[in-house]
Amino acid sequence: MKICDTLFDPFAEIQSFQQQLALQGKFGATSIFIGTMRDFNEGDDVQAMMLEHYEGMTQKQLCKIIESAKSQWQILDCLIVHRVGEILPNEPIVLVCVWSAHRSEAFEACRYLMEELKANAPFWKLEKLATSEKRWVSKNH
Amino acid sequence: MIYLRYFASLRETLGHSTAELQIFEPQTVLDVWQLANPDVPLPENTLAAVNMDYVPLSHPVKNCDEVAFFPPVTGG
């Protein structure tokens, strides 16, 4: 798991993680979710976003979510990368990637990790609109 | 002493992100909010954590705990 305060390349993260020895020859399925910043929300144009988090609690909650996924599905490994700080449209916000022997575990665990992250990881988004108004995001779509 | 943390819109409302508070046990998380912010009602939907784990507002607080208050999370 990684919390990044600068732009990250989700595909490079996946490739780098996947090269670890423990996965070699063992995985038959890789399921990937990438969340990307839009330039619109709630009918308004959005210029940028500031992502705040609770350092320490974020990592603690993500560890719990990962342990919970590992107890429910036979997954070989997983990777979560989440951006914090100032983010611009088109930049990746979150990466969730799961490796398993077969596809169903990878699909289900990836969905579970992402939904649990959204529900429990302490991140908050402050949008900067095209009008320069700042607005806390309140709907967790 | 307990250590208070506030995040996001709640931090902006209060004008600070941290505070310290001397408490005399037993106190709950809600008691701590009221002692620390006597003039500010706890906003609806506020979440609380003690030592970085989610807790209900009725959760007891001990000396040296880190108690955090924040609005619903919006990550991902």
Radius of gyration of chain A: 16 Å
Structural class designation of chain B: alpha+beta
Helix percent band of chain A: 25-40%
Radius of gyration of chain B: 11 Å
What percentage of amino acids of chain B are in beta strands? 25-35%
Strand tally of chain B is 7
User: What are the low-pLDDT stretches of chain B, counting only 5+ consecutive residues below 50?
Assistant: none
Could you name the CATH class of chain A?
Alpha Beta
Largest sheet: number of strands, sense, barrel closure of chain B: 5 strands, mixed
The CATH topology of chain A is given as: Aldehyde Oxidoreductase, domain 3
Gist of the model:
The complex is a heterodimer of chains A (141) and B (76). Chain A is α+β, with helices and mostly antiparallel strands and 141 residues long.
Write the layout of secondary structure elements.
The complex is a heterodimer of chains A (141) and B (76).
Chain A: E1 2-4, H1 10-18, E2 29-36, E3 40-41, E4 44-53, H2 57-72, E5 75-83, E6 85-87, E7 92-100, H3 103-120, E8 123-129, E9 134-136
Parallel strand pairs in A: 1-5
Antiparallel strand pairs in A: 2-7, 3-4, 4-6, 4-8, 5-7, 8-9
Helix pairs in contact in A: 2-3
Chain B: E1 2-6, H1 8-14, E2 18-21, E3 27-28, H2 29-36, E4 47-50, E5 53-55, E6 60-61, E7 66-70
Parallel strand pairs in B: 1-7
Antiparallel strand pairs in B: 1-2, 3-6, 4-5, 4-7
Tags for this model:
heterodimer, A: 141 residues, alpha+beta, Aldehyde Oxidoreductase, domain 3, 5-stranded antiparallel β-sheet, 4-stranded mixed β-sheet, 3 helices, 38% strand, elongated, B: 76 residues, Ubiquitin-like (UB roll), 5-stranded mixed β-sheet, two-stranded antiparallel sheet, 2 helices, 7 strands, 20% helix, 33% strand, globular
